[in-house]
UniProtKB/TrEMBL annotation:
Record family assignment: Belongs to the glycosyl hydrolase 10 (cellulase F) family.
Organism: Micromonospora krabiensis
EC number: 3.2.1.8
Molecular function, one GO term: endo-1,4-beta-xylanase activity
Full-sequence portion shown in this chain: 42 to 341 of 491
Catalytic reaction(s) noted: Endohydrolysis of (1->4)-beta-D-xylosidic linkages in xylans
Record-annotated active site: 232 (nucleophile)
Protein name: Beta-xylanase
Domain GH10: 1-296
Lineage of the species this protein comes from: Bacteria, Bacillati, Actinomycetota, Actinomycetes, Micromonosporales
UniProt GO BP: xylan catabolic process
Keywords associated with the record: Carbohydrate metabolism, Glycosidase, Hydrolase, Polysaccharide degradation, Signal, Xylan degradation
Length: 300
């Protein structure tokens, strides 16, 4: 293929980008988005603070702008994210116990239900594990409602949108390490007990190196019977940026259950990072990392 999306599709994958609703009025941005990508995810617009700013009051305007743009062009949509310790509305930040648990599950049901039939994969829960060597859950108001909050969220999401693949999504889980092993053990337990989980998202916010066991880590999760997805890829600018993008792409293609790659923005100027981590430069030109990614998609 000659674009990221068509080349990925030839390999049975999608290639997506995180989209910010306000950039849909930037014609250069939209030109690149429509040409290169066949999947989108909302960078912020489906998060709890955006979709339920007051308890029980749901606002989907900006998220709908992204979903409508995608649907009218045949792009699939990832949902990000139903529950997360960050970007909660103020009212939820101040809640605890069964009141918070009930509000959180209601949020999952209402948002997943609103988009029922329109979402390829939902990040049901985002970043629930702590960094470091302990393999522990991250402390948060949600975690303090009880260790079963994650499985409760997955069950509610399944009931609300039975057609969506339900993912757990995290960062610093890109190689085999204590954090990724803790996630692995949770996924294995969920599969054993019939908790509805279909996929694991590896954010892959990368620096100047790619873990040597990146592909092996994807494969061990796939071997649990879940799909794996690269969900928020971006890579520090530097001599190795193109090589790392190509390595991530090759790893996904080498794992049968790696169903797609999403980059966390379009141009460097659209990124949350300041180190030019994306595939297009600030003028919208293709970077070396773009060519390396495209070539990796088209190899073999
Ligand atoms: O919308 C408000 C605006 O009204 C206000 O004037 C402005 C002032 O700060 O803030 C705006 O909100 C910002 C929002 O992005 C939209 O631009 C928030 O401050 C800012 O914190 C928020 O950052 C987002 C971040 O998640 C929040 O934690 C980034 O755009 C987004 O790229 C980033 O994405 C996360 C994924 O969801 C999860 N994985 C890590 C990834 C990178 O941090």
């Amino acid at each position: 293929g000659t674009t990221l999306g068509t080349s990925a599709a030839e390999k049975g994958r999608y290639f997506g980008a995180a989209v910010a609703a306000q950039r849909l009025s930037d014609s250069q941005y939209v030109t690149i988005l429509n040409r290169e990508f066949n999947s989108v995810v909302a960078e912020n617009e489906m998060k709890w603070d955006a979709t339920e700013p007051q308890q029980g009051v749901f606002t989907f305007g900006n998220a709908d702008r992204i979903v409508n743009h995608a649907q009218s062009r045949g792009m699939s949509v990832r949902g990000h994210t139903l529950l997360w310790h960050a970007q909660q509305p103020g009212w939820a930040q101040n809640m605890s116990g069964s009141a918070l648990r009930n509000a959180a599950i209601n949020h999952v049901s209402r948002v997943a239900g609103n988009y029922r039939g329109k979402i390829h994969s939902w990040d049901v829960v985002n970043e629930a594990f702590a960094d470091g060597g302990g393999g522990a859950r991250r402390d948060s108001n949600l975690q303090r409602t009880g260790n079963d909050w994650i499985e409760a969220a997955f069950r509610a999401a399944r009931a609300a949108d039975p057609g969506a693949k339900l993912c757990y999504n995290d960062y610093n889980t890109d190689g085999v390490n204590a954090k990724s092993t803790a996630v692995y053990n949770m996924v294995r337990d969920f599969r054993a007990r019939g908790v509805p989980i279909d996929c694991v998202g590896f954010q892959s916010h990368l620096g100047t190196t790619l873990p040597g066991d990146y592909q092996a880590n994807l494969q061990r999760f796939a071997d649990l019977g879940v799909d794996v997805q690269i969900t928020e890829l971006d890579v520090a600018q530097g001599g190795s940026q193109a090589t790392i993008y190509a390595g991530v792409t090759r790893a996904c293609l080498a794992v049968a259950r790696c169903t797609g790659i999403t980059v966390w923005g379009v141009r460097d100027s659209d990124s949350w990072r300041s180190d030019n981590p994306l595939l297009f430069d600030r003028s919208g030109n293709k970077k070396a990392a773009y060519t390396a990614t495209l070539d990796a998609l088209n190899a073999g």
